[in-house]
Write a structure and sequence with these properties.
18% strand, 7 strands, globular, Rossmann fold, alpha/beta, 7-stranded mixed sheet, binds S-adenosylmethionine
Length: 277
């Protein structure tokens, strides 16, 4: 095709992907806002709503880039924790039968383990930008930044309650291998969640979306980041990624259970969820 990326051989793909994100790292956040008109923030918020993590949950965010998912996760669990703390303070004032029968369990007993998030990405430039952002937002506590490949994660088995990968899996060369690794590092009962571009089903919206992405995104890439090619790659990788149902089957084939998906913005993105049993 006129894009020239479609014929990239498999062995070349990882190198190209590395270059793309190395080039865009500094401008990555601005580009996300510009290209999605800020909507990527709402999609990421939706991922947290679907996840609804409880205080104490341990997260691994793969292809985590500049940390958007991990930051949201920590903010979410901390606000949940605050809410629970206030609720239990209220119930101490007006004891319920449960409290009385429990003989006021001490706060010490109720305090959950601290939630932690690990951001793992193959590209150290992306992680560097993320770490700086975390420091300046003052939410670095509970976060760690690890260079690693989704296809060969540098973690032991059964470590995490939640595995996320947002706008990352389509960049991975062997998706089945990345799914196997997700399954391996999750604890039994742990949840896999993937936010990714998907298939727009409404034909009118599909045409608008096609026109926008093929014509506008490389232009924005050139104007804002001085990098047309990287953004051509982006559009192309979105087109090649399997649709909602096909990806659901891949997750099931990897060995996950109760696999479901939720489409957002007419299918521009989807969140897939599955459990390790
Ligand atoms: N999750 C972040 C977000 O939603 O803003 C970043 C997404 S960014 C589009 C894709 C990220 O995937 C890049 O940071 C890139 O370095 C990373 N990536 C690509 N291939 C990878 C691999 N094999 N293993 C881990 N990360 C990878």
């Amino acid at each position: 095709t006129h894009f020239g990326f479609e014929t990239v051989p498999e062995a070349e793909k990882a190198k190209r992907v590395y270059k793309v994100f190395e080039n865009v790292a500094q401008k990555y956040d601005i580009m996300n806002d510009a290209m999605s008109l800020g909507i990527h923030r709402l999609w990421k918020d939706s991922l947290l709503h679907v996840m609804n993590p409880q205080p104490g949950a341990q997260l691994l965010d793969v292809a985590g880039g500049t940390g958007d998912i991990a930051f949201r996760f920590l903010e979410y669990v901390r606000s949940q924790q605050e809410r629970q703390r206030r609720r239990s303070a209220r119930s101490m004032q007006t004891p319920s039968w449960k409290d009385i029968s429990n003989n006021y369990s001490t706060e010490e007993e109720e305090r959950p383990q601290e939630s932690k998030a690990v951001v793992c990405d193959i590209n150290k430039e992306m992680l560097k930008v993320g770490k700086q952002k975390g420091d300046s937002m003052g939410i670095s506590a509970g976060l760690s930044w690890v260079v690693g490949d989704a296809e060969e994660l540098p973690f032991d088995d059964d470590q995490f309650d939640i595995y996320t990968i947002a706008f990352g899996i389509r960049n991975v060369t062997h998706i089945d291998q990345a799914l196997q690794e997700a399954l391996r590092v999750l604890k039994p009962g742990g949840r896999f969640l993937c936010l990714e571009f998907s298939k727009v089903t409404n034909p009118v919206l599909a045409r608008l979306y096609d026109a926008y992405s093929f014509q506008m995104i490389p232009v924005l890439g050139e104007v804002i980041a001085g990098d047309w090619k990287s953004y051509q790659y982006l559009v192309e990788s979105i087109r090649k990624f399997p649709d909602q149902e096909a990806f659901k089957h891949m997750i099931e084939d990897a060995g996950f259970y109760c696999v479901q998906y939720y489409s957002f913005t007419g299918g521009v993105v989807a969140i897939h969820s599955g459990f390790k049993l």
